[in-house]
Structure to design on (389 residues):
């Protein structure tokens, strides 16, 4: 499905005119480095070939019209000082972005906008970042403003914090913006240096959407973040070097002080410290062609999400367990916030059907539902596109 084409067609049929700006932004898969972004740590991620197109034109008023292209449902909100909707969250991502752009002087008037995408919602593939980033690029283009990519990512994060209530890091937005075909995105979330590493040839990422979400909204995520901050504060008081985030804590520090820490904070800190190490090791594996070593680190990462960060669930554990006993899966782990969503697996391209055919009936037998498999292509990042006739 060409989402850009569909968004344009729906825009013309709803508004009876052409949009004047358009952008496409992909979803993302987190490949290694879980809950490390807001701890100033490292992540390897990829933009995927599922995304959202946002099309818009200025309307000369101080109010914004927004249509969700899948439902063909319209909401209207004021450009100045809008209050988030409480009955559905999708407009809030765009509202947050519009407020950010308005404050920067990058939005001259309200707009008539529409978005349409194919990132499965609730799958942990960041349909929200795809929406935020496509909206930010398209709306900035209405006034001809060019915004630096890191600043663009921050506009999306602010929308999540202030209009959705999730205290997320910058991972989803950066992955969507910096994606590169056949390359993983390596981000240092302290310096915000972003580089890319070639994805191993002949291999694919198989995303298995569990179709479940066990979280009670944003509160579980925010609670994990608070525990990490509390653990960082603990070390800041004890170590004789500056600690501003868990990035500054080593495995040795953890071992030395574990007994003095709250049990929960020690577990959370172990996860983050271990994940940072694994991302560095995994990058070296990629650079030396050790795909199997990379895969082992993915399994280790999942075990840590399960046991230390406690953000997994039965469905994800089952899929990763089954994957680990399948001879053709090199690595598997949960991806993203956790509590459901998707498992990501690394395997040779030629092994996909064998793996899916083995796992599907077992999962069905255990949970009574099917997981949804997607072979995702490691893709390029967000960009504006021409509105042609
Ligand atoms: C969600 C958040 C990201 C990141 C991941 C976990 O996707 O939006 O900022 O924290 O969870 O790594």
């Amino acid at each position: 499905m060409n989402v850009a084409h569909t968004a344009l067609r729906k825009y013309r049929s709803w508004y009876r005119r052409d949009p004047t700006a358009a952008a496409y932004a992909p979803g993302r898969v987190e490949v290694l480095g879980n809950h490390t972004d807001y701890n100033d740590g490292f992540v390897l991620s990829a933009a995927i070939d599922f995304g959202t197109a946002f099309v818009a034109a200025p309307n000369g008023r101080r109010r914004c019209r927004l249509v969700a292209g899948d439902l063909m449902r319209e909401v209207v909100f004021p450009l100045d000082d809008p209050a988030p909707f409480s009955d559905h969250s999708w407009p809030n991502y765009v509202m947050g972005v519009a407020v950010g752009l308005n404050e920067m002087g990058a939005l001259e008037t309200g707009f008539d906008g529409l978005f349409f995408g194919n990132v499965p919602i609730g799958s942990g593939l960041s349909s929200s970042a795809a929406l935020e980033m496509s909206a930010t690029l398209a709306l900035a283009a209405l006034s001809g403003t060019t915004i630096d990519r890191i600043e663009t990512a921050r506009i999306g994060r602010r929308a999540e914090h202030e209009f959705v209530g999730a205290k997320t890091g910058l991972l989803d937005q950066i992955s969507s913006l910096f994606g590169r075909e056949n390359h993983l995105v390596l981000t240092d979330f302290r310096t915000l240096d972003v580089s890319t590493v070639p994805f191993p040839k002949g291999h694919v990422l198989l995303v298995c959407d569990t179709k479940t979400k066990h979280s009670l909204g944003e509160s579980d995520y925010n609670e994990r973040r608070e525990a990490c901050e509390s653990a960082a504060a603990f070390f800041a008081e004890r170590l004789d070097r500056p600690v501003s985030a868990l990035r500054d804590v080593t495995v040795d520090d953890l071992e030395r002080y574990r007994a003095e820490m709250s049990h929960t904070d020690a577990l959370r800190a172990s996860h983050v410290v271990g994940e940072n190490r694994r991302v560095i090791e995994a990058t070296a594996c990629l650079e030396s062609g050790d795909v199997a070593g990379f895969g082992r680190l993915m399994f280790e990462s999942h075990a840590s999400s399960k046991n230390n960060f406690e953000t997994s669930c039965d469905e994800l554990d089952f899929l990763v367990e089954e994957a680990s006993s399948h001879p053709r899966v090199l690595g598997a782990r949960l991806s993203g916030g956790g509590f459901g969503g998707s498992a990501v697996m690394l395997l040779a391209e030629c092994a996909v059907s064998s793996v899916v055919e083995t796992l599907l009936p077992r999962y069905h037998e255990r949970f009574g539902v099917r997981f949804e498999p997607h072979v995702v292509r490691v893709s390029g990042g967000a960009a504006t596109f021409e509105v042609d006739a």
In short: The chain has a mean pLDDT of 97.
